[in-house]
Structures are given as structure tokens and as C-alpha cells.
């Protein structure tokens, strides 16, 4: 299916790492997918993974009830239909509440209070510090994913820069809900054996090369790909692993409760804890993104998980919906 993509990113001349956030934008088109969700039968699977990242264990047999799930990440086209009907304004399009910073307002740089979002912006030198590649760009939002000066959001690429409330508003409008982590992981694994290596270039959109300074884009994409460019899994679901991270409804704790195995819904809000973001009840996000590379974030796997700040979107996080009935 990659071969069917009418993109130019396979050209050798285009293999250098883009220098700007907007340089990661793709103009590729891929075979269009149905928006019709698929039914996932109730089942039991080995949830979690061990000997990789501590937060993914322990592995335990886990049951999920029947549900339906989108075959692709929610796209800009779908989100635009919601906004057109409701005039909904996302968090990233509104001025920032100074109280969120927890310091006197005069200590907050003025640009941090402008509407905007966090955009991946490649550093010029090797780094292991995420603050070197995340930039708060005023004017960045779902319609302008690379900032005010960048290209418009492409219709069939996943919508990004949404906060939790934005995803919830879309889900309520669309008649769905965010999947639980267990549902998502069961659907992503689709009965396959767990793996640890980076997926092949035709299987998922991840990062080939030494993150964050070298990206050969062997899979055809430096950044986000349109949904449906990569092969589906055995359940017919595209881009579960890679492309953009997908937020689930569960609150985040590092590691799983080994006794919570029957249609688990994660810890309570009060019990939620994210060591990278203490003081905030993070949600679990799954599957890694186009920024996951072997030397950084080996999370291109169904069991991978990280906490997601509910109040802020970024350029590598999206979602898809689950449903309790057809
Ligand atoms: Ca890629
Ligand atoms: Ca994904």
C-alpha cells in the first residue's frame, strides 16, 4: 500500500531531516478508508509487556467485552465536520489561563499565554532532553498543526493538538467514547505475538535513524502520514502502532494493577500518578508515534504506554473512538 501513496518523500534528495516544524508536513495521499467502525469480539489476551519499560508490566491475562472501534485515527476531515456543526473552539485556540502555571503572572513569558500548542521542532544537535525538540508555538492548533505560518491541516491526516476535553466533546458528538487501555491494546495486538523490534517500514509510521537529528524516513514519512498508508492489522485496524499516539480513557499509573483483569478501566482519578507530570491526573496514551526510534522511545508496540497531560495537545498525539454498539 505504501507504493500506492502518491508522495515524493521516497526521493533520495528529500531524505535530509527537515529544518523546521513545517518541514515535517506531508502532502502524500493514500487509499481512502471507510469511517465505519469494526466489531471486536470479546476475548482474553496477555496484556502488558515485560523487560522493556517498567510501566508496561506486569503481564497478566485480561478480558475485554465486545466493542466496536474506528479503523483509523480521527482525521482532520472528521473533526472539521464536528466543528462546522457545533462551532466548537478547542483549548489550543483559546488564551491560556495563567493560573495553570502556578507562578505570579508577571513571571510567565507573554508568548506562553497566547493560544497555541506544543510542536515538534527538530534540534540542530543531538540531544536527549525533550525540551530541545518541543516548542510552544503560538497559533498552532488542529487547523494549523505546524503553527500559524505552516500549512493547513490535511483532511485525511490524524487530528492533533487536542486536549482531553476536546476529544471528549468530539466523542459525544460522534456517538462514541474513548477506548479503555485494555480495549485499545487488545485491538492493536489483534492476536499477534508481542515483539520488541521496530516495525518494518511498510507496517507502521515510526522514525528510522538517530532521533532527533537524523531521520531517513524509510517508511515514506518524516512526520505524520495520512491514515491508511500502512497495512492494517489482523482486525483491519490501521496505524494503531505509530503515526500518532492515541489517548485512551484510563487514568495513568506507571505499571498495571495485577488484580484488575476483567474489562479493566484503570485507576481512579485520585490514584492517578505520572512521574513526568506529578500533580496532574494524566490519561494513558498508546502505541507510539512517528517520533519513536530505536534510540529513543521504543514504543512502537501495542503494550507501550505513557501519561498524557489532559490539558494540552501536541503535534504527535491523536485518538480514535470506541463504541458500545454498532
Ligand atoms: Ca516515519
Ligand atoms: Ca496510532
From TrEMBL:
Residues 36-322 form the Sulfatase-modifying factor enzyme-like domain. InterPro entries: CTDL_fold, Sulfatase_Mod_Factor_Kinase, SUMF_dom, SUMF_sf. This is Sulfatase-modifying factor enzyme-like domain-containing protein. The lineage of its organism: Bacteria, Pseudomonadati, Pseudomonadota, Alphaproteobacteria, Sphingomonadales. Residues 253-273 are annotated as: Disordered. GO terms for molecular function: formylglycine-generating oxidase activity.
